[in-house]
Amino acid sequence: MPVDATRRAWLTDLPVLLVALVWGSSYLAAKDVATTRTVLAVLVLRFAVVLPVLVVAGWRRLRALKGAQVRAAGVLGLILSGIFLLETYGVVHTSATNAGLIISLTMIFTPLAEARLTGTRPSRSFVSAAGLSVLGVLLLTQGAGFSAPSLGDLLMLGAAVARTVHVLAMSRMRSVRGADSLSLTTVQLGGAVVVFALLSTVPGTGSTPWAAAADFGAGEWLGLLYLSVFCTLFAFFVQMWAVRRTSPSRVSLLLGTEPVWAAVVGIALAGDRPGWLGLLGALLVLAGTAWGRSAATPRPTSVVEPAEPDRADPGLEPAGRA
After folding, report:
1. Which of 150, 192, 253, 291 could form a disulfide with 129 if both were Cys (CB 3.0 to 4.6 A apart)?
2. What's the chief localization of this chain (predicted)?
């Protein structure tokens, strides 16, 4: 590859890697901002900051959505709200390291679920990679000794399953195929915020958004803005920019380093100490997901197949990981 081409590739790759780093750090940021009583309030406030920017940025394309596309995006928004609820409650009850590594099992669950739906059999190498990842999670959640997984670990496992459902729903809903991704993301996040706002009014579910906002100090507001501006807006627009300058597979591969950064941030900044069993489990999760991603990627053939422009690319849909 010529020097100029290599430089251009790196100039595209670095922002995407930064997104992976930001996402990896988002678990610690959410853990620092949210408590059991303020999860719903934090979610409402986080996306209330984001939505106006998305609406203004994509107003013309948002108005061009058809009724069926809006309804489908609304359904996806309900699933998305479940993902964020499980993730945020989960990270409150577990370590940032565990959260980032367990959620990476989505990369294993999605191809397995898709194979089940399509009636195809995954390769032996992929099944082996999946088994390695599951073993890694079992070791990771034990820390220094064997015990029952924590509530947070189980919630993050549920979030990984919910992400899989979201990805498969996006790829199989005909009404959203070919629709503008920014508009779909805006509608989904809008639907999710409505769910969070309604749940926050139910007695016993914790602080209301305005009560939580009044109690936040400077640290909580900085963490909330970090989640809103960097983990959502910045990440979304970098993906949109990068996928036009490189291949979807390359972007997806770079974003797949998120669990690595989650582990690094959790151990370096949060003082997570997973113990030897946990460290071994973390390595197995990373190895298993990397192996599984490679095994699930179709090998190129000598015949160039026409692209499917209406098929959603699960690795690049920002709504699933806003």
Report:
1. 291
2. membrane
